[in-house]
């Protein structure tokens, strides 16, 4: 099997790297903690780079690419802690495209900014569709949905929604009285829609609480499997951002371990430091392998996509949590101060492992898929 990137994929990765290198994203991550106005709006960059149409089919004005291409962009964003608008717009565009929605071409072109309101598919632990709660560990029920022909009305609250505060369109998921999932697209300024931008631990994450109080929109003709795909795609994107941040943490820690001397020796020569850095590398490569599997499953084995994306999210979240802590430890006292960027990586790690169900939820899903016999089988 050839695991090398295609020419198109290399171009996409390099273009994303080039676009992000022109922006002071790390500086903005620090300054945004004190001044929200310092947070960079990367939407113009996303439009110029074509990220808004990555997952939209060519006949609807998009690039017609797959999850792995989106993952490559997310990795580059993660390397520089960029608040790239990926977690809200990309799953939304996927659902709009699969439903053949009239607004899909405008979303692909960046003329309309869409955001997806995350809803977790049922499992053996949570048998209903649920959403992240405003606080606490108990998940909240997904919004109630009432279907009337081609329209659908939603009532409920979805918290900690990525990119919703800047969106023109919201792709909502609700459940009918019979428990069936329904997707619909709403105008963010429609009657009954309240979007409340909220504080974030990682200043680059644009989050909002969205309340739907009898808000009516256009029903999207999607089945449960298509609706669930958006959840797992978001898991994969968060894992990819985590991988990018891990790569940077490894590079920075390794460079410092070579140049920092104590007792006449580079600190990298001490076993404790060496073992920690090697462990970052091991976790990094495990995450990378799983993300390759995600891209394969998305396009070729869709029945394994849930397992693949959940595994990548679980391993990637743990990798970034470990790398962020190890980066601080390698740098010693300065690593825990604002003189260094390590605390920004730590903040990204702690918020990433809690968003959209969190890494614990992904780990539970992996266990469920394996126990049910739906994991990978290569006869």
Describe the structure.
The chain is about 45% helix and about 15% strand. Strands 1, 4, 5, 6, 7, 8 and 9 form a 7-stranded mixed beta sheet that branches. The model has no long low-confidence stretch (mean pLDDT about 95). It folds into 3 domains: about 5-110, Butyryl-Coa Dehydrogenase, subunit A, domain 1, CATH 1.10.540.10; about 115-225, Beta Barrel (Butyryl-CoA Dehydrogenase, subunit A, domain 2); about 225-370, Butyryl-CoA Dehydrogenase, subunit A, domain 3, CATH 1.20.140. Helix 7 packs antiparallel against helix 8 and helix 8 runs antiparallel to helix 9. It starts with 6 loop residues before the first helix and ends in an 8-residue tail after the last helix. The chain is globular and about 75 Å long. The protein is α+β, with helices and mostly antiparallel strands and about 375 residues long.
A few lines on this structure:
GO terms for molecular function: acyl-CoA dehydrogenase activity; flavin adenine dinucleotide binding. By secondary structure, this protein is an alpha+beta fold. The protein contains eleven helices and eleven strands.
CATH T-level topology of the largest domain: Butyryl-CoA Dehydrogenase, subunit A, domain 3
CATH class of the largest domain reads: Mainly Alpha
**Beta-strand fraction estimate:** 15-25%
Residue share in helix: 40-55%
Structural class: alpha+beta
Q: If classified by CATH, what would the architecture of the largest domain be? A: Up-down Bundle
């Amino acid at each position: 099997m050839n695991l090398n990137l295609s020419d198109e994929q290399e171009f996409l990765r390099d273009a994303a790297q080039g676009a992000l290198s022109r922006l002071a994203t790390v500086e903005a991550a620090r300054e945004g903690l004190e001044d929200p106005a310092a947070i960079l709006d990367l939407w113009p960059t996303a439009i110029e780079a074509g990220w808004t149409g990555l997952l939209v089919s060519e006949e609807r004005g998009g690039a017609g690419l797959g999850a792995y291409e989106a993952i490559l962009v997310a990795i580059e964003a993660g390397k520089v802690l960029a608040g790239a608008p990926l977690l809200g717009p990309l799953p939304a565009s996927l659902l709009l495209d699969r439903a053949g929605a009239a607004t899909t071409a405008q979303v692909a072109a960046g003329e309309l900014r869409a955001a997806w309101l995350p809803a977790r598919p049922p499992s053996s632990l949570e048998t209903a569709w649920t959403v992240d709660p405003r606080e606490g560990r108990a998940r909240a029920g997904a919004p109630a949905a009432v279907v009337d022909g081609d329209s659908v009305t939603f009532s409920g609250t979805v918290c900690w929604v990525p990119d919703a505060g800047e969106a023109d369109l919201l792709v909502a998921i609700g459940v009918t009285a019979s428990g069936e999932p329904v997707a619909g697209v709403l105008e963010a300024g429609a009657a009954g829609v309240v979007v409340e931008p909220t504080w974030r631990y990682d200043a680059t994450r644009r989050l909002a609480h969205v309340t739907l109080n009898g808000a009516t929109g256009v029903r999207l003709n999607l089945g449960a499997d298509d609706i669930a795909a958006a959840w797992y795609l978001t898991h994969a994107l968060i894992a990819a951002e985590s991988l990018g941040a891990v790569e940077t943490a490894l590079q920075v820690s390794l460079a410092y371990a070579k140049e920092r001397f104590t007792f006449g020796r580079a600190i990298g020569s001490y076993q404790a430091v060496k073992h920690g850095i090697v462990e970052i590398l091991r976790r990094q490569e495990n995450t990378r392998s799983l993300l390759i599997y995600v891209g394969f499953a998305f396009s070729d084995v869709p029945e394994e996509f849930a397992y693949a994306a959940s595994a990548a999210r679980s391993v990637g979240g743990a990798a970034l949590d470990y790398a962020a802590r190890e980066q601080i430890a390698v740098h010693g006292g300065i690593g825990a101060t604002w003189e260094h960027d390590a605390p920004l990586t730590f903040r990204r790690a702690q918020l990433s492992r809690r968003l959209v169900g969190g890494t614990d939820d992904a780990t539970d899903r992996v266990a469920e898929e394996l126990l049910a016999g739906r994991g990978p089988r290569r006869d």
